[in-house]
Design goal:
Helices cover 52% and strands 5% of the residues. The protein contains twelve helices and five strands. A hairpin with a 5-residue loop joins strand 4 and strand 5. The longest helix is centred in the last third of the chain and has 22 residues.
């Protein structure tokens, strides 16, 4: 399929990469495969037979063909990069008006679905008693309240750590978030400085009240800057997102939960499980603080995956049939 007339250009460029740019044999092999594929695509069409006459329209068509054949967007992006460099070199040797690969973009990569815990694992995580952690009892109580609130209300970890134990507005400090126990709500300031209220479940309210009782008895002085912080580190500072990440990961590992658990996974779990139960996309959007419904719709895909798994496991016609009938 490869047109012999284009081989000298490929050979010359590979020699340039080897001698001038000192690329490794492995990298040279990759360039060779990408350029030979370009030459094969060129040979498949009848409009032209030389590299020098290719246009952006041709490159876009080649890209579409590769995508239709199932090549991943990342692989197509690598090939376009190799082709672009090749035509940059070829322009020094031939009369090429413009690089035909300039401006050609690979297909968009599919966004990976957010990872959510199953309902059983999520409940196990937030309700499970810490094992032999070596932590002080106060910090165990603090962690439990944080985990319960993350799953109960779907907060971002930055929203969680910015919470105060009560609403404060005074010179030098105004609360960005706080718990309204009477209304069983958490008020947070999310992205774009947008404030929202989210319901807090009974289990989280109980855990928060227990933590506030313990917090009030702490003998370690709290730095003035962290006086109103709801959640405190062992040293009395407002807890950091990194500390929350470390605690929840360690807790999940101790409980034997087979996932790389992080705070945002509880936010994903909150949204997915709520949507599975209610089907109310707009309500979930408001509670998550998403500006666009499109950001929330990704959780419908998670819900569909769950339903598909249930179908595959339970429906008698979903199972693969044997060879005979």
């Amino acid at each position: 399929m490869l047109d012999p007339g284009n081989l000298p250009d490929i050979t010359g460029y590979l020699k340039y990469l080897q001698t001038q740019r000192k690329l490794s044999p492995h990298t040279l092999d990759s360039y060779q495969r990408d350029l030979e594929q370009l030459a094969n695509l060129l040979a498949e069409q009848s409009t032209t037979s030389t590299f020098g006459r290719l246009t952006p329209v041709d490159i876009r068509r080649f890209t579409s063909q590769l995508h239709a054949r199932g090549l991943a967007p990342t692989s197509i992006a690598r090939k376009l990069s190799a082709w672009r460099s090749f035509f940059g070199w070829l322009a020094l040797k031939q009369d090429i008006v413009a690089n035909p690969v300039d401006g050609v973009k690979p297909p968009r990569r599919a966004k990976p679905l957010p990872k959510a815990l199953g309902v059983d694992d999520a409940v196990k995580l937030v309700s499970g008693k810490p094992l032999n952690t070596g932590e002080r009892a106060a910090q165990v109580c603090c962690s439990k309240a944080m985990f319960e609130l993350l799953y109960s209300s779907g907060l971002r970890v930055s929203e969680l750590t910015s919470l105060d134990h009560r609403h404060v507005k005074e010179e030098g400090h105004e609360s960005q978030g706080w718990i309204d126990f009477d209304a069983a709500e958490v008020i947070v300031t999310g992205k774009g400085s947008k404030r929202r209220s989210v319901p807090v479940g009974a289990a989280a309210i109980t855990a928060l009240r227990e933590w506030l009782t313990v917090r009030a008895t702490q003998s370690r002085p709290t730095p003035p800057a962290d006086t109103y912080a709801l959640f405190l580190s062992a040293r009395g500072h407002r807890i950091s997102p990194r500390e929350v990440q470390k605690r929840i990961k360690a807790h999940a590992q101790r409980l034997g939960i087979p996932a790389d658990v992080h705070p945002h996974m509880l936010r994903h779990s909150f949204a997915s499980h709520l949507l599975q139960s209610s089907g109310d996309l707009r309500a979930v959007q408001e509670m998550l603080g998403h500006a666009s419904i499109a950001s929330t719709q990704v959780y419908t895909s998670l819900d569909f995956q769950r339903l598909a798994q249930v179908y595959d496991a339970a429906h008698p016609r979903a199972k693969k049939q044997g060879g005979g009938s």
